[in-house]
Amino acid sequence: MFKSLMTAFFLVSSLAISAQAQEVEVADNENVMDELNPFDANIEETLQQMDQIYFEETGSSPFIENLIGPMGPTCYRSSCKVWAQVSRSQQKMYLYIDGVHTNTWAVSTGTPGHGTPNFDTHPNGRIYDKYTSTKYPGGDYNGLGNMPYAVFISGGFAIHGTGTSNWKKLGTRASHGCIRVHPDNAFKFNRLVREHGIYKTWITVHE
Predict the structure, then answer these.
(1) CATH code at 34-206
(2) Does 66 score more than 90 pLDDT?
């Protein structure tokens, strides 16, 4: 009798542990898409709402001061002070400062159906230190939300940090279309753009 009870106990315990593991796996998978969807038909409205929330929370504009600049590019790729080259096939970002390769970072670009487009341009000026998605609230990083240190390229497409549950996915396609990097690397890139400005920064995204 005792042996039967112990066997039943271990069986129930094993099932509970297995269920918990499955719940963690599901939760983790749900965090794959924890940022805004740049392909959303209402993305501009969403971005404006984000801008308002950012201003209310920080008292600062989400746009860096040198948004208004000359018509056309002022530098190109390696001739810029800061150049971020993102390879979708390698899932890596190569950072150049004054034309010198300084860092290589693993990234996550968009999954099939949400593929990150090609870009070859200055960033558009919208830049956040923190943002918390209300649609995908999981994956908060140190109170900075789902997209810490975001530097926007065009529309809703940005280079930004991601929560800890997504770090193991860096180096694979896992996002809604944005370019995810480790938050430490996102912070470094964010600060370089803030320091040197969008007209001395260039972002290239290619296969």
Answers:
(1) 2.40.440.10
(2) no
